[in-house]
C-alpha cells in the first residue's frame, strides 16, 4: 500500500486492505462476526498505541473483549471499567480476565514523581503515585528509573487485580464457574508477555481464584 500523508486517509486505506485480505482468507469471516461475540478473555490494558492486544497476542476480531485506559488502572469508583467488567463477565461469560501493564509506560514513569500533569491526569494517576510512596523503600533499591517504572507497572497490575477481586460479578463468576484473573507485563522492547505471580493464586501462573 502506498504511504499516505494524511493519517485519516492512511487508516481508511488500511481498512480496505484489511477487509480484502480477511475476506480472501475467509469469505465468511465478517458474516460470522455479525452473529454475535463469544470472547473467552477480558483484557484490561493500557491505552498506549504500541500495545494493540489483538495484534501482540496474534488474535482475531472477536477473540478478546477490551477495556483500555491510561496505565491500565482499575479504580474502585470507575464506572466505565466496572461496566465493562460486568458486561464481559456476566453477559459474555468470559473465562479469563487479564490485566496487562507494560515497560516504558508513560503513566508508570510519570508516577515516579509528583510533577503536575494537569488536573485530570493528576487525579487519575494518584493511586499509582500512592503505590510509589507505599513501596518507596523497595523502589529506592532498584538501579534506575527504568527499573522503578517497571516495578511500579507490576504493582499497579496487582493492585488492579485486587480491585477486580471485589467486583460482585467477578466474585460470583469466580465462585460459580471458576473465572480466573491473570496479571501480565508486556515487554515493549522484546514484544513479549511476562506472566506475574498474583497473591492468592498458584505460584508463577498469574492466576487468582477463590478456590
UniProtKB/TrEMBL annotation:
Binding site for Zn(2+): 46, 48, 102, 105
NAD recorded as keyword: no
EC number(s) on file: 4.2.1.1
Molecular function terms, GO-annotated: carbonate dehydratase activity; zinc ion binding
SUPFAM superfamilies linked: beta-carbonic anhydrase, cab (SSF53056)
Segment forming the signal sequence: none
Record's keyword annotation contains Lipid metabolism: no
Family: Belongs to the beta-class carbonic anhydrase family.
Native source organism of the sequence: Paraphaeosphaeria sporulosa
Protein name: Carbonic anhydrase
Reaction equation(s) it catalyzes: hydrogencarbonate + H(+) = CO2 + H2O
Keywords per UniProt: Lyase, Metal-binding, Zinc
Record PANTHER family: CARBONIC ANHYDRASE (PTHR11002:SF76)
Known function: Reversible hydration of carbon dioxide.
Cofactor: Zn(2+)
GO terms classed as biological process: carbon utilization; cellular response to carbon dioxide; cellular response to oxidative stress
Free-text comment on the cofactor: Binds 1 zinc ion per subunit.
Taxonomy of the source species: Eukaryota, Fungi, Dikarya, Ascomycota, Pezizomycotina
Pfam families documented for this protein: Pro_CA (PF00484)
InterPro entries linked to this entry: Carbonic_anhydrase, Carbonic_anhydrase_CS, Carbonic_anhydrase_sf
GO annotation, cellular component aspect: cytoplasm
